């Protein structure tokens, strides 16, 4: 109980700080119009709220604010596979291109598959994700003469609303924290962005099915990679791959993959579409489908 109260207070504090910074940033944006970063270098909004690709965070700090500015994004995302639907919405603030605070609300709908799983058609899982990311070295955009990428460290604390059920399925907890290190480099001569992330996690299906399990309850390092080619200044195409832990006996967990196109007609709006292959989820096979996201930022 003490752990839950502590986590809730931390999450609420991050959210209050972020909202305060967004309010401050709005006045900065009004004076400077929009931040000074290059188009698309703030990334899109990842399904857990961080700036990056759709599936994995990048080292870049979200928003278009540079080292003397504040930027931010709000987003809404839907992923619809053959049997499930994930809706996510949230916001982030980037402070002086150094610190990123984020929040995401995930709503996982089992649709008709809920009846097959014995939990009821249209059964809903929800999860709150509070994130922080800090740039610790490099500048993946400006330091083109240096091979060193931009490097950031971050964490995502997750709280699931279905504690009794996920424990019945074999999970050890209904909340947990992921820790990650990520490196990103934009090679402007080739219009190419490369990213690699190592995540320490216990999360089952991002935490939707809880944390830890009857097979394993220890942190495991997972690899997440992405690459994007900038077709022009406002369009990028690319792919991502994310490995996953396999903690639960009742259901094997597969790695995730997507191919995407992102379009940013202005710095204030970006749209992302993707084909996502999420493998088997909770014994339901071959969960593949569409990913769509809209982001509003400054």
TrEMBL record:
<dbReference type="InterPro" id="IPR021393">
    <property type="entry name" value="DUF3034"/>
</dbReference>
<protein>
    <recommendedName>
        <fullName>DUF3034 family protein</fullName>
    </recommendedName>
</protein>
<dbReference type="Pfam" id="PF11231">
    <property type="entry name" value="DUF3034"/>
</dbReference>
<feature type="signal peptide">
    <location>
        <begin position="1"/>
        <end position="32"/>
    </location>
</feature>
<keyword id="KW-0732">Signal</keyword>
